[in-house]
Amino acid sequence: MTQAPEAILLVGGKGTRLRPLTVRTPKPMVPAAGVPFLTHQLARARAAGVEHVVMATSYLAEVFEPYFGDGSDLGLHLEYVTEEEPLGTGGAIRNVAPRLHSGPDDPVLIFNGDILTGLDIPALVATHRESGADVSLHLSRVEDPRAFGLVPTDEAGRVLAFLEKPQTPEEIVTDQINAGAYVFRRSVIDTIPTGRPVSVERETFPGLLESGAHLQGMVDSTYWLDLGTPQAFVRGSADLVLGRAPSPAVPGRRGESLVLDGAHVAPDAKLSEGTVVGVGAHVGAGARITGSTLLDGAYVAEGAVVTDSLIGAGARVGARTHVTGAVIGDGADAGADNELRDGLRLWCDAVLPDGGVRFSPDR
C-alpha cells in the first residue's frame, strides 16, 4: 500500500466575516457540533490515512497547541508554524515547508481551515498520482458560481484556466469552483516565493498554468460548505449534528439535537434541526431552539425563541426574546422581550436592556 501523504492545514486567517465569534477565538477553533471545527478536519484527515499534519498559524496562534498538543489523542503527529506577518495561502504553505518529510515527488495534502466537506480524500490523492499532476485541486459544482472563482477543465480533468468571479452570464463558462483542498507535488511548494504574501489562487496557480505545469481537477460534489459567515457556520454545525455532513468527531449521536455534558434543558423546551447545547449551557422552560448553536455556558431564559443563530460562550438571551439569524457574542446579554434578527451581531460583553424592542439592522 502506498504511504499516505502528510498534510498542511491553513488556519491563520482572522475570520473577519465571522466576528464577533472570532474576536477571542480563531475561526478554526470556534465550536461546530460540540468541538472546535478544526477537530472535524483533523479527524477526517486521520481517517483518510494522514499521520503528519503541519498547521500554518497566525491569528491567535497561541490557542492551537495547548488544545491539540502533539496530536496523539487523534492518532496524529501535529506540528505548528506561526507566521510573524500574514503571508496569504501560498506564503503560508511555503513557510511551513521545512517541517515536511516528503521527498520531491511525493504528494502533500493542503486544506483550508474553513471548509466543511465530504471530500473523498484518498480519491483526490489517487487522481493526483495517476494523472502525474504537479498540483491537483478538489473542484465542486455549485448552482450559482457567481461568488466563486471558476475552474474550467478539459475532458480528462486537466485545468484550463482560473477565472475571477464572473460578472455577467456570458462569463459563467463552468459551474466548477475551487473547493479549497489541494495535493501538491512536494517540489512545487519550493517554487513559491518566500518572505512575502502569496495567494495560491491569484498567483501560484495561474503562474503554474502559464509555465506549462500540469494542474488536475477532480470534481467531487459531495457535501461542501464555506464556513466564512455566521449563517454558514451555524448551518454547518447543524448539518454535522443531523448527519448531513460527515465527521468521525461529532461527540454523540446524530439527530435533531446534541446536548453536551453539564447542560440543563428544561423538560418542556424544544430543541430541533441540529441544535447544539454546549457544556454547562442552560435552556429555560418553554424555550424553542431551532437549528442553532449555544456555546459553553450560554443561558437562554424561559420562553425565548432562538432560530438559525449562534449564542456565544457565557452569553445570555432574556425571557421571551426572539433571536433569528443573529449572533450573540461571548458574554453578551440580550435582555428580555427583545427581537434580534436578519444578521444582527451583538458584540462580546455588550448589554441590550429589557424592553420589547424590535432590533434589526437597517436594510
Query: Which geometry do the CA atoms define?
Result: elongated
Mean pLDDT: 90
Query: β content, as a range?
Result: 25-35%
Please state how the strands of the largest beta sheet are arranged side by side. Answer: 5-4-1-6-9-8-10
The biggest sheet amounts to:
7 strands, mixed
Please provide the count of β strands: 29
What percent of residues adopt helix (DSSP H or I)?
A: 10-25%
Discrete helix count = 7
Task: Report how far apart the termini are.
Answer: 57 Å
Structural class: alpha/beta
Radius of gyration: 21 Å
**Uncertain ranges:** none
Task: Explain the overall architecture.
The chain has helices at residues 37-47, 64-68, 88-96, 121-131, 186-189, 200-210, 230-242; strands at 6-10, 31-32, 35-36, 52-57, 77-82, 107-112, 115-117, 135-141, 176-185, 215-219, 224-226, 257-259, 264-265, 270-272, 275-277, 282-283, 288-290, 293-294, 299-300, 305-307, 310-311, 316-317, 322-324, 327-328, 333-334, 339-341, 345-346, 351-352, 358-359. With 363 residues, it is α/β, with parallel strands linked by helices. 18% of the residues lie in helices and 27% in strands. The protein is built from seven helices and 29 strands. The longest helix is centred in the middle third of the chain and has 13 residues, at 230-242. The strands form six sheets. A seven-stranded mixed sheet has the order 5-4-1-6-9-8-10, sandwiched between helices. Strands 12-15-18-21-24-27 form a six-stranded parallel sheet. The model has no long low-confidence stretch (mean pLDDT 90).
